[in-house]
Here is the input.
Amino acid sequence: MRIPLIAGNWKMYKTVAEAVKYVKELRGLVKDVDGVEVVVAPPFTAVHAAAEAARNSNVGIAAQDLYWEREGAFTGEVSGVMVRDAGAEYVIIGHSERRTLFGETDASVNRRMAAAFAAGLCPIACIGETLDQRERQETFDVLDRQIKLGLDGLGSDQIAQLVVAYEPVWAIGTGRNATPAQAAEAHGYIRKRLRQWFGAEAAELCHVIYGGSVKPDNIADLMSQPDVDGALVGGASLDVRSFLDIVTRGRDAARRRQGGAAGTV
Here is the structure.
């Protein structure tokens, strides 16, 4: 049984002091919350301090990106080894903002994936279609391409450890989100492809989470759908109480779907 995973992507928000204050508060709020993995992704400048604040807690730390080379003359880049050394356990790769604003491609995503695993990091690999692609009924073609090219060369053991974040680009930062039915359809398709290309065991262990305007009032409906194993939360994760609400509501919805009792905080 996959344990739900809720990750907060802070994007370009929060100073070091703000990140530390947030993580200290969050670790106290979730210390007795079981049955869910909780992750936050601060900006690079705050990864180390956030990781120190999260030490010996059930809060994991992610970086928002990495570069595929271990070291070298790459001004402004940060390697997987550096990210791991700073205290991160996870790394977000191929977020739609990286693709659309900074020119990342499926090929560069693939190189980052290999670098993440080599550094001992768990990748959160982002895939998803634009509004134009969805309206042209190209969603599944886009997902096929991004899975094939982005995960090329990975073994089934690596897929089993992977987190895939389905993020319909048209839902990120727009206030729109995929309906529960749309999310279930996309997640089911992703799981099917993972099963076909990497084997049943790896596909069943791989987390497939949803990202795109996730909020406290829609997380339960999303998490009640088959194959939705969690969420990658953007703006709603910047407030610690809002994020806690998403964590607990998402966890409880997953438990109800799986036939278990909802938990309490």
